[in-house]
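Narrative progress, year one. The postdoctoral researcher (J.K.) led the effort to move from monomer predictions toward full complexes, under supervision of the PI. The following entry was the first complex the group processed end to end, covering 276 residues in total.
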Amino acid sequence: MGMGQQRERGFKLTPQRAAIMAYLEGNRSHPSAEDIYAAVLEKYPMVSLATVYNTLEILKQMGKVTELNIDGERKHFDPEIEPHHHLICTRCKKIINVRKEFDLEVPRDISREFKIMDRHADFYGVCSDCDNGAEKAA
Amino acid sequence: MGMGQQRERGFKLTPQRAAIMAYLEGNRSHPSAEDIYAAVLEKYPMVSLATVYNTLEILKQMGKVTELNIDGERKHFDPEIEPHHHLICTRCKKIINVRKEFDLEVPRDISREFKIMDRHADFYGVCSDCDNGAEKAA
DNA sequence: TTCTCTGCAAATGCTTTGCAGAGGC
DNA sequence: GCCTCTGCAAAGCATTTGCAGAGAA
């Protein structure tokens, strides 16, 4: 992920932050804050959930991470910058990337009234794991 | 909204539920549960937030209302069945409909693994009210 | 010293749940 | 009576905040 340009004077790359960023680097599992906390905790016991949230907030502001609202129950985070879309299994909550370009232009009467900053397509479905037998992979 | 076919034996159209459904009928403001509660309360003082949530859950199951996750802070509800999309002003949180058909087909390797149940495009922007002066209409 | 960061714990805010009482059939 | 529904209050979770102490420059 690289700490090239930082948010502002005074940003410190602490071990906690480095661990969080290392976990996110290249990660395509769209983890929740709790997921990140649990993962980082394994290798680096000195982290608190508050620091995870704090760091995610900063990474968001730096544009290094995107917050996903596809899951109504909790937020997920995505370090991938390239534009892409998401699909969530409504049973096991697994989120996968949908790499395809969609033509998402809003009608002109809307683009006159709104400055569009972001857009994406969300897909909701059931994965084959969940569709088969009972609800494994919950 | 009409109570044609109901969820199952035993569904009662109580005054509270009727008031909630009446408020939602034709409503295009994408209200949150709290919004619905406040609005219904004006005309019908005998409602509780719990009943609003309870009713929304039932309406969702009946397919008469859709839950929107476009706003990370709270859920919004939409009684419109016709497929459409949404745009939210990230400042004032106003949500408007985007009536346009987008070609949202997932790549074949994904449709093989997932049974897609729903799909839609979400747009994030800033409305002209918020973009101009300070943050009115907060 | 000065400033940012951290962990902890408390506080928020949205949503859900438990439960005893009310009302309809 | 039987069953569903309601309001209230408590509980549950995810997320945020306050704060004193730790650490780097």
